[in-house]
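Note to self: the last two entries modelled the partners one at a time, which told us nothing about the interface. This time every component goes in together.
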Amino acid sequence: MAKVFSSFHVENFCFTRKLTILPNSPHFQKWVPNIFSRIEPRNHLFELRSSNGYPLNAVSLQDEGSAANPLVQEVDFPEFEKGDSTLSITVVGASGDLAKKKIFPALFALYYEDCLPENFVVFGYARTKMKDEELRNMISRTLTCRIDKRENCGDKMEQFLKRCFYHSGQYNSEEHFAELNCKLKEKEGGKLSNRLFYLSIPPNIFVDVVRCASTKASSTTGWTRVIVEKPFGRDSESSSELTRCLKQYLNEDQIFRIDHYLGKELVENLSVLRFSNLVFEPLWSRNYIRNVQFIFSEDFGTEGRGGYFDHYGIIRDIMQNHLLQILALFAMETPVSMDAEDIRNEKVKVLRSMKPLQLEDVIVGQYKGHKKGDKLYPGYTDDPTVPNDSVTPTFAAAALFINNARWDGVPFLMKAGKALHTKGAEIRVQFRHVPGNLYKRNFGTDLDKATNELVLRVQPDEAIYLKINNKVPGLGMRLDRSDLNLLYKARYTREIPDAYERLLLDAVEGERRLFIRSDELDAAWALFTPLLKELEERKIAPELYPYGSRGPVGAYYLAAKHNVRWGDLTGEE
Amino acid sequence: MPAIEDEAPLKNLKEGSSLVTPPKEHKKSNDNDDKSTVSITVVGASGDLAKKKIFPALFALYYEDCLPKHFTIFGYARSKMTDAELRNMVRKTLTCRIDKRENCGEKMEEFLSRCFYQSGQYDSEENFEELDKKLKEHETGRVSNRLFYLSIPPNIFVNAVKCATLSATSANGWTRVIVEKPFGRDSESSAALTSALKQYLEEDQIFRIDHYLGKELIENLSVLRFSNLIFEPLWSRQYIRNVQLIFSEDFGTEGRGGYFDHYGIIRDIMQNHLLQILAIFAMETPVSLDAEDIRNEKVKVLRSMMPLRADDVVIGQYKSHTKGGVSYPGYTDDKTVPKDSLTPTFAAAALFINNARWDGVPFLMKAGKALHNRRAEIRVQFRHVPGNLYNRSFGTDLDRATNELVIRVQPDEAIYLKINNKVPGLGMRLDRSNLNLLYKARYSKEIPCAYERLLLDAIEGERRLFIRSDELDAAWSLFTPLLKELDEKKIIPEYYPYGSRGPVGAHYLAAKYNVKWGDLGVEE
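The predicted structure of the combined assembly is written out below.
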């Protein structure tokens, strides 16, 4: 994918949630391009709320700009000189896969785009003995330059690696964290210090690390924040236990629970689409929407790495977090503002308006071995890391309902599975049929086939399209569904940043919109815990489906029960 | 009920993906086919329209098996010509559809063997009697249906109709007459024409063609609106801020301004094509898709409108312009146009519909010759989002951030909806993107010419796309006072250079109603 990149975008890539000014306004002289200052104390004159940084007095360029050239230039007003503060990012579990594949590359991308503050250091922390040099070697192998701007990439990479250091230590040793603290202080050189810990470690040592880090390596002058990734427990009890333990050492606003699906471009765009387009606003309710589908599929299985997965299963791994979060964003009422707390308040309201899942509204499946051509695809239990009698679901479909005025009676269907025939994640909104349709005769007897559908494809090949009924060109009157569509690849030449970049940047900036609050987490678990317990206690056998198939047929019956057709399995796609 | 809809079967729906399937629903399979004939007489067969549009459209219909089994085509004009000469003339203009060349030569010959010629005066009953004899010969005693296509200047409409009906009406089948604009110059002349025609014809024999109504996307307008739930709640003053109907040509009269100068752009484009589209766009849901139901709703729209006032109209005329060594002539440089002509070649107008659905929504029309591009489109601009959460991301001009639905009728048929979208990347910058459907990319089938559809409808007696007398009256009564005022006061048009975007007055007119022309935005 060759990309073209306008220089304008490069310069302003990350200065977007900020103040917009006319270039010829008196403030212009104060604009210092490429200064990163959002993590520093702000100029309160221009701030509405510290949590999202929207200025009160935004003005715009009236006379310039078009679809291709952004209307506004965004700048910020640093009150402090740069160099006043430092940021240390410690990746705990630096030798792990996630760190290598996602976190370090994301940090480099942010650095490359000038989104990190001037003074920053990156520390790797793990048990392995390693020198700084070795860490750098390890990282440098995983870094890639954005395809669209190769210039200086080598230089930039060297500069970035120079700021990476390593400290080895046990995850439960306060002593070792105290050593880390000394090293951090050294690098901070007495400046205001902000510290971000990224816990890229197994969940059973979360609490130990948080204890050691917060007691021994908290910043004394600036903020200390901790990013944790799923799993956040296995059920309501273990989750609230984890939250309680974390809260012994951290305040709510120091905990950043990442759900990397919320950092996906189209999930971010969901609210934009809904709240900034008049054409969607009247449609967003039970009056017009017949059902909503959240679909996630992978075209591979556990492939020898099923140990972790077998303990959790697809419902915990995908549904309870990623799909449910997207559902909440989709269905929430209009928030008071786009501030993190306002959005999360609305999301919690959605979750709390839902009833816990019932067993009869869920289908579970597990893939079995399948031979296709000469190739043999292994079943889930063929994986040596999975017990032979495992009943862990690798596929699940569920119907959920929101009991509020907007959504009463509208089925929200979820489907997630491994080892299916495609790979993708999408949201499908199916609309009701046209009352008193004048063109009834042109559709035949099945009016449901002729309804509109809005599809947001989150991955791969990000796209938005709206299926409409259209006349087939030609004499006569034959109707057909066509798409009004927007394929991101075709419209936007810029590479879409990885979800981790966005989330890391938000954590650095203290923007909590895309992170999960404790009460959200509780509400999410409350919906799924009874079901999960029942599945496990009764050892409910999953419906087996062949590797690479469309999943168990039970999913069709579940959908049919609620008068829904899966939009991804119509034959049209 | 017309055959089209009755016979669109379930089967066709299932074949939805096979787009090249010929529209079988037009094949006549009933027994009547054998017992009846259709004779199509093109009056004015040697004219331009006949050669360029009518004969090719008839051939395309024949090629697609849409014509009845027994049909003959007669050319009628004053020039002396033999059948073979007519066939040669027609042959030169016929082309085969790009998507199915097979048998084309054969088909063409078969078609030509059914074409005949009769020369005669347009006002001679005698000559039409001769035609009648020849027609009878070909009809060989079957039930005879006769369609006359008047491709002649308006001043001889009535004579031709008189002679045709008195001497060449079918004795046992139907007789229909297709007439093309101009239908008069104002309310009075139009009413006079109608009453003259009605001396010889019943209302249901008159097929007034407005070929814009035969365009694919105009046909699709009702489909879009009435078969998609998502558009239904949006179609009113509550959500729509304004509607724009835009027509532009990128060439002038080019030495053929004689006819045009007598009518001007308002009569030539606005009062008929654009107003018809407006009526279809704005009408209430009809009881059914039957012609009378649709036309009833259209008349209601026209009758809910106030006649245009001069201060809601801007007129312009193109002047010569030199660009890169090439000099483009002004309108009055055309030898066929009087030097002091004030005939508008451009006009923009604001219209309002005083009913519950559209009260206060400006409907803007714009039509012009010798502009910078060639297009016809409908633009629907929606209101801005009340209490928009993303206000700050748009700057102060919320009007720039509204949704817009564009239906491009020509060239490159397309439908697209402008939506606000997040620019991919870190941060939150919004941008307008299109949700779009480009016909060329979606449908591989060639889109039929408007004349094919209309001729076929006339043969089948489907009147949906033809203009009824009361519609015509209502349309004229909206424009006549304005046209008279322009003529009487000799209002001078604003000059604009050939190939430009038209007079700036159009912007001020739009601004008066708080509208921005969608086609002149930076984005397009």
